[in-house]
Amino acid sequence: MNTEKVIIIGSGPAGYTAAIYAARAQLTPLLFEGQRLGGQPGGQLMLTTDVENFPGFPDGLLGPEMMEKFKKQAERFGTRIVSEDVLSVDFSSQPFVVNTSSASYTTQAVIITTGAGALWLGVPGETQYQGHGVSACATCDGFFFKGKHVLVVGGGDAAMEEATFLTRFASKVTVLVRKDVLRASKIMQERAEHDPKIDFVWNTEVTEIIGDGTRMTGVRVLNNNTNTQSEIAADGLFVAIGHKPNSNIFKGQIELDQKGYIVVKPGTSATSVDGVFVGGDVADYRYRQAVTAAGTGCMAALDAEKWLASRE
Ligand code: NDP
Fold first, then answer.
1. DSSP notation for 193-259
2. Residue 145 is part of a domain; what is its CATH number?
3. Which residues are annotated as catalytic?
4. Domain check: are 284 and 248 in the same one?
5. 29-47 burial, b if ≥16 CB within 10 A, otherwise e?
6. Ligand 1 mean position to 137 CA, how many Å?
7. Distance between CA atoms of residues 248 and 189, nearest Å
8. What is the pLDDT at residue 36?
9. What is the pLDDT of residue 48?
10. Is the pLDDT of residue 242 over 90?
């Protein structure tokens, strides 16, 4: 078995940026683009419509289109891409081992860029009606709710973005907020609040998703101010309450924080294991932007390159 110089796990902005830098440093990186980690190859941007804040694209571009460009650029410099999920790793000794369902790979260095995925409410009915009214991605599923009444849960930027996007299809969008204030940025709040199709229900927690056995028909909610329960009829529910890092396969191999984010040495991309580096949302609960993911992916490739050179 050939030992790779560097394996990159994950194919969002962090992974592809790491690949561009590692490939240009002649490290011929092997990148696992994944199928399930982070939802799908390309990461969360595959679930996004317009990206308007990535510098260099003054007219904006679509998330999937942007990831296609990242991928092309990584391939142009010799990145080899494997369309498989990494199922387990062994970082206990050199060379490190990376396993997929079909093969094992050995490598000197690893760059983890597995990203993060949506959080769910964890209430009865949620799993049952996923894909039958319940979703965490308006850009993926909004189209199915033409002329319908949909609910959005959450009070952050993601919830405002989902609600605003859904007005393209839905006749009415009701945002359920558990507090009496939003956490979203002013500009996103105002956009949603001024939209005639969007209304807000405050101090409201979803306790159950109800349906007819085939599709959801509404939700049961608790007003945490008055402590009263009620039902809201709706055709769909979009959960937009935040994300969790895709770090399960690294448990026990590398230091994670309480929420599962990979712990980095401040100011670097180094992890608790010498030779394992990290970039993007799997180590970042704060910024979570395409441009910051790309930036930390670049850091990881530069750190890996330096680390490999120091071993020669
Ligand atoms: P946030 O963590 O910012 O917000 C999560 C929201 O969900 C909060 O309002 C929170 O309520 C609520 N929430 C959490 N758990 C529950 C629950 N169990 N039931 C009901 N409500 C719940 O996450 P986002 O995904 O919105 O945003 C993450 C980051 O990504 C932010 O930095 C954001 O700015 C950024 N972002 C930027 C966008 C853009 O600029 N285009 C678009 C989307 C995201 P509470 O306030 O009570 O805790």
1. HT-TTEEEE-SEEEEEEEESSSSEEEEEEEETTTTEEEEEE-SEEEE-S-EEE--GGGTTTS-B-TT
2. 3.50.50.60
3. 137, 140-141
4. yes
5. bbbbbbeebbbbbbbbbbb
6. 14
7. 34
8. 52
9. 65
10. no
CA of 174 to the centre of ligand 1 (A): 16
Residues 91 and 148 both lie in one domain: no
Instruction: Find the 90 Cα to ligand 1 centroid distance in Å.
Output: 34
- Which residue range(s) make up the domain with 56? 3-118+243-311
Q: Which of 137, 166, 178, 261 has most ligand 1 atoms within 8 Å of its beta carbon, as the pocket-test mutant? A: 178
Atom of ligand 1 nearest to the CA of 119: 15
Ligand 1 neighbour 153 (Cβ under 6 A): yes
Check whether residue 184 and residue 83 sit in a common domain: no
CA neighbor of 240 nearest in space, from 142, 115, 128, 108: 142
Query: Does 260 sit in the ligand 1 pocket, CB within 6 Å?
Result: no
Question: What size, in residues, is the chain?
Answer: 312
Q: Which two tokens stand for residue 92?
A: 């206990």
Based on the fold, state whether residues 185 and 198 are members of the same structural domain: yes
The residue among 216, 239, 262 that closes a domain is 239
For ligand 1, atom 34: residue with the closest CA: 157
Region 157-164 average pLDDT? 94
- Residue whose pair of structure tokens reads 């909610």 in the numeric block: 221
Q: Which residue type, as a one-letter code, is found at position 171?
A: S
Q: Could you tell me if residue 129 is inside a domain?
A: no
* Ligand 1 probe mutation, 47, 120, 157, most atoms within 8 A of CB: 157
Q: Which of 187, 215, 239 is the last residue of a domain?
A: 239
User: Could you tell me which of 71, 67, 111, 107 has the C-alpha nearest to residue 90?
Assistant: 107
User: Which of 54, 183, 186 has the most ligand 1 atoms within 8 A of CB, as the residue to mutate?
Assistant: 183
Write down the pLDDT at residue 38: 45
Global pTM exceeds 0.85: no
Tokens of 61: 């571009």
Q: How far is the CA of 243 from the centre of ligand 1 (A)?
A: 8
Tell whether 250 and 234 lie within a shared domain. Answer: no
